[in-house]
Fold Thiamine-monophosphate kinase.
Amino acid sequence: MSFKPISDIGEFGLIDRIASITAPTLETTPGITEGIGDDCAVYEISRSMVQVTTTDLLVEHVHFDLLTTPLHHLGSKAISVNVSDICAMNAKPRYALVSIAIPSKTSVDLVETLYRGMSETSRIYGLAIAGGDTSLCPGAMVISVTVAGDIEKENITYRKGAEPGDMICVSGTLGGAAAGLRVLMREKSVMMEHIRHGETYDKDVMSNLSDYDDAIRQQLLPSARMDIIGFFEKENIVPTSMIDISDGLASDLAHICKRSGVGAQIEESRIPILSQTRHIADEFQEDAMNYALTGGEDYQLLFTLKPENFSAISSHPDISVIGKITPKDDGLLLRDIYGMTVDIQSLSGFDHFSG
Ligand code: ADP
Ligand code: MG
């Protein structure tokens, strides 16, 4: 047996291998209409309704840093990132199971603050926290949240389903979460410097960083776009495909294209980016467009619609049409502000095991 490190095949390569090993189990339960490969697993619960389920792990030192992340915000984010996957299926969240693994020296107050954040945010989404598990984990805090939701079968939206000619749309703005993370990481290194020199430092980073507040909020407190799902329902719109942007626009659009068997062309000038995000990118001598394409963690919805839906969405202040679906052979292209097309297939987005 040869030793192949996971970094050789990457996170998605690993998931593909897991999917092929576990595929036979799908035959045991006929009602599963979607297994590994979409934002949620899908299970038919009646003739007209399907249940959707998703799970996400947040690991200390990988996904969050307690020096720069208030626990209340972290609890909220742990819920929002899961509800975002439920939204990506056009569904409504119903209940959550929350598991935590924590070092034994963690204070009770800290855990309570975490759960208050989860609880407040869950109530906003109409989500019940209905169970979970608790364990010891020396050295790091791990939070695992599973959320179940449901939707009428006729309205479920998968990553597959996009067709050439469909409009590509995105909610909100992109790149802010990556920009906010840059600022927080810089703040952390300043903090560490102070600590090293035995000086005190004001840990309330939010109050010191008002010029960066929108981007930091997008990083620490993303919200799931249930309002967009409500808008679709009100307007009788069912997107042809949808995903939430957790890994970056390029990577998540590539997922839609792969699952739908299509290509895509997006326009750089139409990608919505906050001016604050551009300022932060300038400060770090980086490219705000790169934050949007590969930064991830924006938790906005990326979806495709039939052109006849244009009038219904054109007046929505927080939905941008950024391009169109093309035949598969045309690939995944970005037309830049000078009219040049760039292949963005290779912009991989976030991979836990790369580098
Ligand atoms: P998302 O970013 O929407 O949460 P991921 O990229 O984490 O999605 O996962 C992609 C797909 O792979 C999902 O369908 C998820 O359920 C599945 N998946 C990820 N990790 C595992 C695993 N360890 N075992 C089984 N399925 C997995
Ligand atoms: Mg997702």
Remarks:
- Residues 39, 85, 88, 243-244, 246 surround magnesium ion (ligand 2) (CB under 6 Å).
